[in-house]
Structures are given as C-alpha cells and as structure tokens.
Amino acid sequence: MTVKDVMTKNVISVYPETTVLQAHETISSHRFSGLPVVDNGDHVIGIITQQDLLSRGSGIHLPTLQKFFAELPVYKKDSKEFKKEIYELSRLTVKQIMNPDPLTISQNASLQEMVDMFREHSKINPIPVVDKDNKLVGIISRSDALKLFYVIKLTQ
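^ thats the sequence. predicted structure below, dont judge the formating
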C-alpha cells in the first residue's frame, strides 16, 4: 500500500488570490486544519492553516480583523492613508500569509514514510499529496493515519 491508497482524493483547495476571509470561511465550515494553495494548473504552491490566520506575534485573528474593518464606517474626514490601510486589510489574500514552501508527500510514498513524516513534523497537518509534477492529487491528515492503524488492528 502507498499514500495513494489512503489519501483523500476530493480535495478542497484555494488560490493565492483568494481572500483570507474566504479561506477562513472554507476552513471553518469544513472543520479543516488547513488548505493547500494551488495555481491554475493545480500545482501546489503553498498551504494556509489555522495558525496562518493568526497575525504572527500579535495573536490577532486576521479574518475577524478583516470583518471588523470591512464594517467600520469611513468618514470624509478620515485620512487617505487610513482609508488605504482599511482597504488593503480587507483585500488581504492567501498569497500574503500562506506558507510558500509546504511539506508535501508523493502519492507513491509508502505508508511508513507517511507515518515517519507525521512523526518528524509533529505540528504539520494536513499534508498535500502530489504527483511527480507537483500537481495536487490528494491530501492526508493525522486522522487518516490513525484510521489506518485502526483498520490494521481490526484485521489482526
């Protein structure tokens, strides 16, 4: 068996131009830990996780901040710089906060390689599964690995 045999094949992903708010809504509505970021050819170019949605160092949840500023009334007397900052924050995209060098695994990797990868990178979840051209073909999560061990135990 290989990763291809246990991966989730119907993967929801986002594009770099997707707003942070849209990505957050997708992650939250599906109860995901993160999403792969792909280009128009479905090549993995990054990953965005729940952790990425927190402004590093401040602990501010970016989607909440975006919603707040999107609903904040802007008055004529407000400076152009203030208006520009609000606009830029509301248009923050996945590309601006994603991890551009995500850990990926080959669809042909062994199950032992998958387990070792999760063991070695204890905070990484999920891991995009790619083909030889780095095209997204699936995703694996820690829960997939745990389910596999449960199935193995049942068959013994």
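Strands lie at 34-38, 44-49, 54-55, 60-61, 105-106, 127-130, 136-140.
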